[in-house]
Amino acid sequence: MERSAATRHAQGTPRLGVANGRFLPHRVVRNGHVQTLLSRYRPRQVLALLEQEAPLMVDAGPDQTGFDPSVRLLGYYTRRRTEGPSHGLVISLHGWEGSSHAVHNLVMADAWVTAGFDVFRLNLRDHGPRRHVVPQGLNHGLFLGTLLDETVAAVQRAAELAGDAPVYLVGPSMGGNFALRVAVAHAVRPIPNLRKVVTISPAINPGRSTDQIDAQPMFHYYFRRRWLRSLLIKQQLFPDLYQFDPLRSIQSLRAMTEWLVTRYAGYPSADAYFADYAVLGDALADLRVATTIITAANDGVIPVADFYALAPSPYLQIQVHPTGGHVGFLDLGPLRHCLPEMVLAELTAEPVLADKSLRCDTMAAPGDNSQVVGLE
Predict the structure, then answer these.
(1) Domain with 344 in it
(2) What is the pLDDT of residue 164?
(3) Which end of the chain, C or N, has fewer beta carbons within 10 A?
């Protein structure tokens, strides 16, 4: 017979924090696509964050693409709104073709600074809000999902803002992919005072996610339009280096990726490129920092099956909620983002090691009100 979550906790299983209760919003907004679309809702109060942020340029170390002596990445620092010592510094990444100013980043940052955390929202290469610079012009080299070294270096530099306070790393979607790889790299390239990594809907299988996007017109239109626009800006800034006009006539993201990486990144195929930054199988086996994955069973971009195939690690917790879409997690009464409180619960929970990976499998029928259905 399945033991209750309370019984398992009493007998020494590490507590699940927010996973003790499934994310189960009003049934009107449980559909995955609805959750994803609603994630673009920007509450008015987050606009205050824009007045409190300070842009900071980060030296992200040597350029892996070979064009520049070092990489420059732009981030935005916001100080806590509370009095007294900081609870820590949260460094947040963003999704593919997103930025430090994506809605979920602003909503989460607003909650964090209100709760007493300082926040640094880092933009990856060729990404950014175009508020102070054209992000594609900061570096000659092209953004690739494989450029991990500069992300590790940038996170290390940003962590210095925390002083002696704890540091947390949070990333959604593609930013979640980077955050997981930074967490693994932490074992050999330490991030000062890194206490925990939290990822939301991380794109651990980039090839499969690309195919998922291509198969759904709504997602395909959104990502293709934004990516093509970014590449054409890059071409306009560096016409001697790039000629992306042929991509205008290529429709699928997989075919666009194949065309680009075989000409500008030295890969023989898109599959070889995707495999180079996938986080599959035993990729997280060498974790040395507490890491939580929050995802949804009805995410239309990130297939949930890959999370169940991850090799165990005592540092890894995986929450699979029955709904939430792709970086959604909103509810009604009134319409509100629940992701900030879900992540905040992880930041404030004391990291505890499990005997093996802790999986909160919450994919029971919606009518089932049990808190945790299965725990491996």
Answers:
(1) 5-205+278-366
(2) 96
(3) N
**pLDDT tens digit sequence for 96-112:** 999 999 999 999 999 99
Examine residue 144 and state whether it is found in any structural domain, yes or no: yes
User: Is 250 within a domain?
Assistant: no
**SS3 for the chain, per residue?**
CCCCHHHHHHCCCCCCHHHHCCCCCCHHHCCHHHHHHHCCCCCHHHHHHHHHCEEEEEECCCCCCCCCCCCEEEEEEECCCCCCCCCCEEEECCCCCCCCCCHHHHHHHHHHHHCCCEEEEECCCCCCCCCCCCHHHCCCCCCCCCCHHHHHHHHHHHHHHHCCCCEEEEEEHHHHHHHHHHHHHCCCCCCCCEEEEEEECCCCCHHHHHHHHHCCHHHHHHHHHHHHHHHHHHHHHCCCCCCCHHHHHCCCHHHHHHHHHHHHCCCCCHHHHHHHCCCCCCCCCCCCCEEEEEEECCCCCCCCHHHHCCCCCCCEEEEEECCCCCCCCEECCCCEECHHHHHHHHHHCCCCCCCCCEEEECCCCCCCCCCCCEEC
Number of domains into which the chain is organized: 1
pLDDT digits (tens, 9 = 90+) for 181-240: 999 999 999 999 999 999 999 999 999 999 999 999 999 999 999 999 999 999 999 999
